[in-house]
Amino acid sequence: MPHTSPTALLVLHAVRLKGFADTDAVAARFDLDAAQTGEDLLDAQAYGQVSRSSFAGLAGWSLTEAGRRHNENLLRAELDQTGSRNAVAAAHDDFLPLNAQATQAFTAWQLASMDTASPAAAGDTTGRLAVLADRLAPLELRLTGRLSRFGGYHGRFAGALARAAAEPAWITGMEVDSCHRIWFELHEDLVATLNITR
Fold first, then answer.
1. Which residues have C-beta within 8 Å of that of residue 58, sequence separation ≥ 6?
2. Which residues are bridge partners to 62 per DSSP?
């Protein structure tokens, strides 16, 4: 049976994956109660693990260096407790060639979006991303078979790709939960869990 991560780990990990996010976004990442997440974030702030800042009309949370280390310690302990290290490492190894293909596809999309004379290139990119979405599904199943917190990447990615037919920002846009943002988040999730560098 898959392991369900404790809330304290999920709150800090959501902040790490999002980079900078308000309380509602942190709670939504793992479908946590927003009010309780706010309390957990205030507790983490008291321990120096997160900081709250605002700029350009936006306010949100980010991890401190101490919070990053604590998150890594929690992730390491979870892998050891569940015996999941080898399974997650194997999934990461299989993710790497997909990541190289995704990087090429996103770069091609950005280049095609600057070249309005080449609409076929954009269509080719969405086709390549659809293949990656199909490859992502079994990879996610392997991960969620051990740690349930890895769930949702495939659904989010496929959903963003479907929306991109009407609104291209869903491919690489930063203002929406785009394919690029989701893929980047999965990569960060894997390297954070394994405590390795990209």
1. 20, 22
2. 51
* pLDDT single digits (tens) 123-172: 788 899 999 999 999 999 999 999 999 999 999 999 999 999 889 999 99
Q: How confident is the model at residue 117 (pLDDT cuts 50, 70, 90)?
A: very low
Q: Token pair for residue 165?
A: 């037919």
- Read off the tokens for 62: 């980010």
Q: What is the C-alpha separation between 41 and 26, in angstroms, rounded?
A: 9
What lies within 8 Å, CB to CB, of 45 at 6+ separation is 51, 52, 61
pTM, whole model, 2 decimals? 0.92
Q: Output 110-113 pairs: Cβ under 8 A, ≥24 positions apart.
A: 110/172, 113/168, 113/172
What does 127-141 look like in DSSP terms, one character per residue? HHHHHHHHHHHHHHH
